[in-house]
Amino acid sequence: MTRHAALFVTVGFLLISGCATTPAHRSTPVALTITIKSDTAGKGVVDLQWFRNTTLALIAEQVPNARNPMTMNVKLDVTSREQWISRIVSSGPWTPMPISSEPSFSFENTTSEQITRYRVVYTISDAAGQLIESNQLTLDNGQLVDAKTGAPLKARFGLFGDTAMFLASRVKTIEQ
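and the corresponding structure tokens:
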């Protein structure tokens, strides 16, 4: 019993230590406004709250000592279409069967949203409202491209994660 008690105390101490050393959520002086083209907003393709929180968290992470207030306006234009996917589903796990018996199969049909168009237009302004930067990202053959430079972005976190990472990097560059 004492062994279990010692294990419980050790695990509890590690959990409390881990919580105490986890940094608190940092804020950033960047005001972020996100709008989306209305015909895609209701389809569930974009989780705006997740995109907003992720972008702000990445800005706070990449520019922890940001001092200059900025306003970032982001307009998402996402078009998608529903795609049907059919799969063959077995009735159970495979087991050797006599030759005369036939396995039972069925079809399962599901749908998923496939993004067919993705365009992000953003502006970054200073506290006085002066435009600092304006640019856009587009989807070209499945890859995000910076319209200003024509360079493709490195794909790491999916379209929305890569967009959030790019926007945070722009704030970092402007802050330097």
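(Above: one complete record from the training split.) The first helix runs from residue 2 to 21.
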